[in-house]
Design goal:
The structure is a single chain. The protein has eight helices and three strands, in the order H-H-H-H-E-H-H-E-E-H-H. With 190 residues, the chain is mostly helical. Among the domains are: 73 residues, Winged helix-like DNA-binding domain superfamily/Winged helix DNA-binding domain (Arc Repressor Mutant, subunit A); 28 residues. Helix 2 runs antiparallel to helix 3, helix 3 runs antiparallel to helix 7 and helix 5 packs across helix 6. It starts with a helix and ends with a helix.
Length: 190
């Protein structure tokens, strides 16, 4: 139970401070500094996610449509890719990709064109409207993210990036090692 002094001190902080004080008073195993980082990252992600949802809604795009247009805009010079390459890049089944492309083609964001290198092949090409939509959405979202993080100086942003990169690199290496270990176990049992 928090006393009046503790409650007052916590209220000068952010929404996570009160939760950490409350939780660590009951669970000694929780490191308040670690919990603060985890909870703050989650809270910041919620704020950034809400801003992104607002951007998507303002441009009439779904997450999947945004990702597909972004892939076409950034991965190829001519804004074209095969449906198969897009499926693999976005980790979608061919059926799901066909459905997404049908909707996006009907909305005028992409079109299917013959592949000049393969008579049987078809490329997905971003239309001028698709290019306008992704350019506008990315520009708007970038401005929102800059605004949300404007409380930090350039030096603080750089330092935060270094620290977060260190954590993420460690997590990604751990995931890669775990996947390799799981693959080794699977081969050993067959």
């Amino acid at each position: 139970m928090l006393g009046l002094e503790s409650y007052s001190a916590v209220m000068d902080g952010d929404s996570v401070d009160f939760c950490i004080t409350d939780i660590t008073s009951r669970f000694a195993a929780i490191d308040p500094d670690v919990e603060g980082v985890v909870d703050r990252l989650a809270a910041i992600d919620k704020h950034l996610g809400a801003a992104f949802e607002d951007t998507l809604a303002g441009h009439g795009l779904s997450h999947g449509e945004y990702k597909l247009l972004l892939r076409l805009a950034t991965r190829t010079a001519d804004n074209r890719m095969s449906a198969g390459d897009l499926s693999r890049a976005l980790m979608l089944s061919s059926g799901a990709m066909t459905n997404r492309l049908d909707r996006m083609e009907a909305a005028g964001l992409v079109r299917r064109v013959p592949d000049p290198r393969d008579r049987r092949g078809v490329l997905v090409e971003m239309t001028a409207e698709g290019r306008r939509q992704i350019d506008d959405a990315v520009t708007e979202q970038a401005a929102k993210e800059i605004d949300l993080l404007s409380v930090l100086s350039r030096r603080e942003l750089a330092s935060l990036n270094v620290l977060l990169r260190k954590v993420l690199t460690s997590l990604e290496r751990g995931s890669d090692q775990q996947a390799q270990l799981s693959g080794t176990r699977a081969h050993a049992t067959t």
